[in-house]
Design a protein that fits this description.
Helix content is 28%, strand content 27%. It contains 19 helices and 33 strands. A 5-stranded mixed barrel has the order 5-6-7-10-9. Strands 13-14-15-18-17 form a 5-stranded mixed beta barrel. A 5-stranded mixed β-barrel has the order 22-23-29-32-31. Helix 6 (229-235) runs parallel beside helix 7 (254-266), helix 11 (403-409) runs parallel beside helix 13 and helix 17 packs parallel to helix 19. The chain is elongated, with a radius of gyration of 38 Å.
């Protein structure tokens, strides 16, 4: 029979009988002569380990009176260790082969004459703290002595000579490999937040995309309890050893890894099991609709243990809740952290928000202290975007601490000003913020950027501040509308003039100059007939049409210039007859966008109270081109429409500094002050009753704009 020496691979001898003849590889003849001299025509003992894939050749060890011939071949540099045959040998037979090969490498003998030890870009050994486990075999480690203030301070280390099951890719539809989640979780449990020792064995260029590579370090990682983290994963059947080429660098403990894999394979553990793998399905409650449906369950659960899966910023996370088997988006209530630098993905999609001072420091603090750690949460509400809100606690026993207090005391977060204004912020948080301000920590070490002040408002004089009677001509949302003042002579003049214009010119369009801001005559069907009305060009669309605002009524339309526009007589220009419809906004009131359910409900309620009726309006002033108005269905002593919308939870009062600013800028501040108090009382009532937008609890700051 043909025997392949176990544990060793020698250079190939050429074949002169082929056409053309194949030459021998370097040192092939020397290796053959070395073996012939010691084994040919001798009676020796052979231990068989198995056979090759074809089943033709046996694999075994030849025992020479003076030792193992394979070890002698390696010692003289006439061959390399063969990975596939060494796996057939018992673990105790392999170390002499490794020692022999390493001695030949150091002496640069034979096939190792050009061997050079692997060149590392950093230290070959260092201590550090594990910040994140990115996969079943890769970790992000902060070396001792480094301050974690940027992602560049972390070292990405992969376990040497180990292959973990790969996670899938939802975008491409690639599923997870069996046991990928279990392997990553086991690695997380053994290493996250712990001090580890890293021995770097080699480096490789890893493809990261088209024409992109990343130099990755591979090493052996140990903790106080585990001498080799990789060996633990392999022995539990959660990972396998990497099949290397014979000339590849390997882990210094490669043989121990192979032995552990042999034990796991024999025991049919994990990936070696013959049973069908059943993937654990986890509910994803980061979807807003699912989150709102499930919010009540989490709120009733009280203290709940969770694992922080991802950190978006210093106070917003993605959590995995084992007891509920679900993922949730979670934000700390009562505090706000500054915006960190955008991720590469967000920047490439054009959705990046600019970073704020100490945003990155706040995020790094959370990654360092809570990422992939077990925490305890108390859910108190859910936002319109499906983000659970509440408190988060880190540590256990005497080390248990409120993470909100930690962030605020470090100057990495601020207490929500609304909660302070409403008296809902815990005193301990306010005291912590005061202490941070006094010590000028973090955010408070720099001058605070004040909110942009609104454009200077036009204040009506006393003659204009009287109550006016109006009619709504267009409703844009629950607090945005256009109106006409009853008895306005300009309205009668322009209505009569445009009827004459229609009778004179008919309904045929005519060429006219179309540019943004120009006022033209536009054809509109009011339900009875087509008539001409004054309209201002707002923009030109990419399909050759224009978007118009009918300045005497407030409605908009997109029309074709060729069939719907004609020049307007000079006598009908806005310099002669001002626009009749005025743009108004309910003062102090904020509503949801019309695209959301609460926004539609607000607009419908407003329409039901105001459309087609003569209303009393108190005109307070102008800001950003809009008249700030308080509307009444009857007399001014009855509750205003502003208040009714707020009391139903379909509108809310602005931030306190915004209210104060409007009161100070506008005339007739006594009526505004009374209105602000009425709206605040109505809002408190709606919040307690969980009406409208308050149905899921408090509204966090990110949902306000």
């Amino acid at each position: 029979f043909t025997l392949i020496l176990a544990g060793v691979s020698c250079p190939r001898v050429g074949n002169p009988r082929l056409n053309p003849p194949t030459p021998s590889e370097p040192f092939a003849e020397a290796a053959r002569d070395f073996v012939e001299l010691r084994l040919l025509q001798r009676e020796l003992e052979v231990t068989l380990h198995g056979c090759d894939k074809s089943g033709v050749c046996l694999v075994g060890t030849v025992h020479h009176p003076r030792g193992n011939i394979s070890a002698e071949i390696l010692k003289n540099g006439l061959g390399r260790i063969s990975d596939w045959t060494v796996r057939m040998m018992s673990p105790g037979e392999v170390p002499p082969l490794r020692i022999a090969e390493n001695a030949a490498k150091r002496a640069t003998l034979g096939v190792f004459e050009s061997y050079k030890p692997p060149v590392l870009t950093g230290a070959s050994e260092f201590m550090g703290t594990v910040i994140e486990v990115t996969s079943g075999d890769t970790l992000m480690i902060l070396p001792n002595g480094e301050t974690y203030d940027a992602e560049s301070k972390l070292k990405k280390i992969s376990l040497a000579s180990l292959r973990a099951p790969r996670a899938g890719n939802e975008r491409t539809g690639k599923p997870d490999e069996p046991f990928s989640a279990e392997c990553k979780e086991r690695l997380r449990a053994m290493t996250i937040g712990k001090s580890v020792k890293v021995n770097v064995n080699y480096e490789r260029e890893i493809p990261m995309g088209p024409n992109q590579t990343e130099k990755r370090q591979f090493g052996t990682i140990s903790t106080k309890q585990k001498a080799d983290i990789g060996e633990v994963l392999i022995s539990e059947g959660l990972a396998t050893t990497q099949r290397h080429r014979d000339d590849d660098e390997k882990s210094a403990r490669y043989d121990e890894l192979v032995a552990a894999e042999s034990v796991a394979t024999a025991a049919k553990k994990g990936v070696h099991s013959t049973s069908e793998y059943k993937k654990k399905t986890v509910n994803d409650l980061t979807d807003p609709k699912k989150a709102k449906t499930y919010a009540g369950t989490l709120q009733r659960a009280g203290n709940t243990k969770a694992i922080v899966d991802y950190v978006f910023n210093g106070s917003r996370f993605k959590l995995f809740i084992p007891s509920e088997n679900c993922y949730v988006a979670f934000a700390l209530s009562n505090v706000r952290c500054p915006q960190p630098s955008p991720s590469a993905g967000a920047a490439s999609r054009g959705k990046a928000k600019p970073a704020e001072p100490f945003g990155d420091a706040s995020k790094c603090h959370s990654r360092l202290n809570v990422l992939q750690r077990q925490v305890e949460i108390v859910c108190t509400g859910v936002t319109q975007g499906g983000v659970m809100t509440g408190d988060l606690y880190v540590g256990q026993g005497a080390q248990r601490r409120d993470y909100c207090i930690e962030l605020v005391a470090s100057g990495l977060a601020t207490v929500d000003q609304r909660k302070i204004d409403y008296g809902e912020a815990p005193k301990v948080l306010i005291d912590s913020q005061t202490a941070a301000q006094e010590n000028k920590l973090g955010i408070w070490s720099i001058a605070q950027v004040k909110k942009d002040e609104p454009a200077a408002a036009k204040v009506f004089d006393k003659a204009d501040s009287k109550i006016a009677e109006i009619q709504i001509s267009e409703i844009r949302s629950g607090n945005h509308f256009f109106f006409r003042v009853n008895g306005d002579e300009s309205a009668k003049v322009i209505d009569d003039s445009m009827k004459i214009f229609t009778d004179t010119n008919g309904t045929n369009a005519a060429p006219c100059e179309v540019k943004v801001g120009k006022v033209v005559a536009a054809l509109f069907d009011d339900g009875a007939s087509n008539s001409w009305y004054r309209a201002k060009v707002l923009e030109k669309t990419d399909k050759g049409k224009v978007r118009l605002l009918f300045i005497d009524h407030g409605n908009e339309a997109v029309v074709s210039p060729a069939s719907h526009l004609r020049p307007l007589d000079m006598s009908l220009g806005t310099d002669q007859i001002p626009a009749v419809a005025k743009e108004g906004k309910l003062v102090f009131s904020k509503v949801r966008p019309i695209e959301e359910d609460d926004g539609i409900d607000a607009a419908r309620m407003f329409q039901g109270m105001a459309w087609g009726k003569d209303l009393k309006a108190r005109l307070h002033g102008e800001a950003e081109g809009q008249v700030l108005v308080t509307l009444y269905e009857a007399d001014t002593d009855s509750p205003s429409i502003n208040e009714k919308l707020v009391s139903e939870g379909l509108a809310r009062i602005g931030k306190r500094y915004e209210v104060y600013d409007i009161v100070n800028r506008m005339g007739n501040s006594d009526s505004l002050g009374k209105l602000a108090k009425d709206l605040e009382a109505a809002q408190n009532s709606a919040r307690k009753s969980r009406k409208g937008m308050w149905v899921y609890g408090e509204i966090p700051e990110e949902d306000e704009d």
